[in-house]
Amino acid sequence: MGMVEFILTEDSKLSEEGLARMAALKDRPIDFSDIPELTDEDIRVMRSIARDRQRRHMFSLRLHQSTIEWWKKNVGEGYTGVMAKLLEEATKNPEWIKKCL
After folding, report:
1. Which spans in 1-101 are helix H?
2. What is the pLDDT tens value at each position of the chain, 101 positions in all?
3. CA–CA distance from 47 to each of 15, 37, 41, 54 (Å)?
4. N or C: which terminus of the chain carries fewer CB neighbours within 10 A?
5. Which domain holds residue 78?
6. Residue 78: DSSP 8-state
7. Does residue 55 fall inside a structural domain?
8. 22 is a domain residue
9. Among 25, 1, 28, 29, which Cα is nearest to 14's?
């Protein structure tokens, strides 16, 4: 059995043949024999890396009261998380920021 490698992205366009090949792989067993078992130390390090990537930092921002009330009313619980996500997305879309300058 040969190795099959295919990386799907959001922009991937699969042909009918490609879709059929992917569907045929779903029942194929995965050979884990060449992958070493993770040690407790490996798992500890991976968890530490994951925590560091997810860690958020406290940040203070002055907003008009009406703006805060709008977010609370229209988004509800978790509105600060949505605001954080919006700011994160803005870093990927500099044109959004330019519109506000």
Report:
1. 16-25, 40-54, 65-74, 79-92, 94-100
2. 566 676 777 777 878 888 888 888 888 888 888 889 999 999 999 888 887 777 778 889 999 999 999 999 999 998 998 998 899 889 898 898 888 88
3. 38, 16, 10, 11
4. C
5. 65-100
6. T
7. no
8. no
9. 25
